């Protein structure tokens, strides 16, 4: 599992989008037993924090201690530095396992072995993510050009799974058809720039070129964004849910 997010982890916690409450309401309806949940690749702990509102215990893991240092806290969340593919958890303890915007970094085969080992029979695996941001036709075109042509070659190979809406990841579970969700926020231009600066490809670009390409991008965006203005930003939610059966 790669660690692209230990640096600037405070910005990751501040600028990354959250997930809609309707999504967690839906998960509550399909997971009847709410004793133990595992938020794998928890990052800034936003999903763990939401799960903690309904689950007795939430175990949240990440390979980045820096990310965990900035994670949201709750009395029933237990954070620990562990890899997705090899944990110290007991067998058969989880009612729900969630991976949010992280599974594309994992070794699928090894992680799924760990999922089956640590979950209760008929527990649920929820793979979450979000696609490319949508704002307006003009701004979307600018960001798409930046995404594909300016920093395109700096994305890790695993990014393709996000672009393919997680539909091409291996998923050896009995899949549950779920509703479609969309995330909506009101953001300032400063928040958008903060978010774009958390992109791993931007970090790779800066490391190789000693220059932040966001500076030119911001000048382009300012043509369509008034000073002090907030705009609605939208993220399509990528979602796959499976019933975990150890024999499959």
From TrEMBL:
One of its GO terms (molecular function) is S-adenosylmethionine-dependent methyltransferase activity. Keywords: Methyltransferase, Transferase. Residues 39-126 form the Methyltransferase type domain. CDD domains: AdoMet_MTases (cd02440). InterPro entries: Methyltransf_11, SAM-dependent_MTases_sf. GO terms for biological process: methylation. It holds the Pfam family Methyltransf_11. SUPFAM superfamilies: S-adenosyl-L-methionine-dependent methyltransferases. PANTHER family: OS01G0307686 PROTEIN. This is Methyltransferase domain-containing protein. It comes from Wenyingzhuangia marina.
